[in-house]
Amino acid sequence: MTYEYVNETAIDENLKCSICNDPFQRPVHTQCDHTFCYACIAPWVSSNKSCPTCRSTISDIQELKAIKTRLVLNMLDSLPVKCKTCGSTNIERGNFEDHVKVCQRKSMHSYSCAAADVLCPWVGSKYQLSEHLSQCPYEQLRPVLSKILAENQQLTEQIAKLTEQFEKKAHKNEKQVQDKRSTITEVRPHVRTIVFASLLDQDKCGSVPDGFAGLNWRNARYTNEEKALAIRPRKRTERLSVFLHGYPCIIYNDWKNPLVISSTTHNFTLHACEVMSVHHPNETCTFNVIGRKNELPVYSKTISLQRDISQVIQFTSWTDVNKLELFIENSYFILTWIQVEQ
């Protein structure tokens, strides 16, 4: 059983292998810091003993190192895919193996009615098929339905022909408009993942300054691992898991207030972020996100978080906002990265 990617052209090129041109599977990197799928680079190294990108020498497959950065692996696992067997879509790639178990059971035990060609929607087990066929209304009405479907097909073909003619005219008109506007430069939006390591160039901890990553920040403080102990006083001897995942710097909400990210110059789209509860007295708590445009709330999302376990949150169609509020009532939380489109 296989899958295909949903809207593959929108996938960041940095997440694709330059050998197979697909998103990485079991990504590894070379000593010259180029990344490939293991299944793609291993046979290449065996035959060529070099990097296919820069031709640096690679003596042995053992020199290839697995990518362990949680940010990259989470982004790959969250790519939406479509099952080629059952047609289910928007399945996260990391969950596809779980889908396969259900999909295989359906494909092994489900049968369609013989009158499916005249639109009978019945689906059931092999043992129910005979009983259904004996009383299927679609099969009994087959002559009438076949005539209706044939006439419908003729109308569909006529509509398709008219649509084609219309699209040709529309394309011609669009080209004329584009020719007249050829001097206008279109600024295309771009998706970027904001991480916070560069803040450590200023100090080990402090307030996130306005203007960082082109945005304004309120109630937002950054810290390295050493200073992060202050926000989980009951477990000062334990390392925060986000630092085990390779993040040198995180931000958190100052004095347990809502963390506010905004822009006074342009609107943006929120795609995803990774957060973790660190101070709440309960094992699970409610994390809230509000998206505003000109101070009016236009989106909201509530997520259940487990304490000390980071979670990636996806936001579908959160477009055209200029302010975000992230909070857990009366508690600290950690933000390791956030992905926006401007």
Q: How would you describe what is shown here?
A:
It is a single chain. β16 (284-293) and β17 (296-306) form a beta hairpin. The chain has helices at 38-48, 70-77, 96-109, 126-135, 137-140, 142-180, 241-244, and strands at 3-5, 27-29, 35-37, 65-66, 80-83, 91-92, 111-112, 123-124, 191-194, 205-207, 216-218, 220-223, 250-253, 259-262, 268-277, 284-293, 296-306, 311-321, 323-327, 333-341. Mean pLDDT is 87; it is low at 183-188. The chain has 342 residues and is α+β, with helices and mostly antiparallel strands. The two termini are 37 Å apart. It has four domains: 3-106, Zinc/RING finger domain, C3HC4 (zinc finger) (Herpes Virus-1, 2-Layer Sandwich); 112-140, no CATH class; 149-180; 191-341, Sandwich (Jelly Rolls). Strands 9, 10, 12, 13, 15, 18 and 20 form a seven-stranded antiparallel beta sheet that branches. One of its GO terms (molecular function) is zinc ion binding. Pfam families: zf-C3HC4_2. This is RING-type domain-containing protein. Residues 145-172 form a coiled coil. InterPro entries: Znf_RING, Znf_RING/FYVE/PHD, Znf_RING_CS.
